[in-house]
Amino acid sequence: MIQTAEKSSLLRELKYFGDEVEVQGVLSESVIPAVRGEYYAYSSEFTEEWPLYVLMKCKANKVRSITDAEILGREANLLFLFGSPTEVQVCAIKTAHASSLLGNSINGESFGETWIAPAGIAAEYFYELRSQKDVTKLVEICRAVYSKREVSIALKPGEVIAMMTDIGKYGLFLVKGVTPTSIQIDACHILL
Question: Cα 134 to the chain's mean position, in Å?
């Protein structure tokens, strides 16, 4: 299943059958945690209004507004930072909270740790891993770059980012496109 954003910011769940796409319905705004051992592959578009990235179940909308952060708690993982006409960045939710990027009224005590680092793999290899649902290699890549983790990463098209959480989520996302106000990604993740 693939998730994609439409111009109206409504997200729909899609299934791909060769060249045909079947719309399955609007994704849920509910908090639907990832299921242990279930592999997720999807595409998403994040914007200035919807910059919060949550690694939840595929039926859940992974694109959220900052106002959802406190409700999401440990399910909130990353924040895309817009503002510079030439640069979009991503940072962990705890970093965003500590830097007051989520606003002063949000209590961040329920946020978990998320680590990010450049994955050091080519886009072609990312798509191969994603389509083959190769969990072993996905986890190996995330663990291999853990020591190179960064507080925030400036993103550019074609770059693959690895992410890990303290509760056992492992994931990769490929930056497909970047504008000053949006970013499109292809991603996969699993909760072990």
Answer: 18
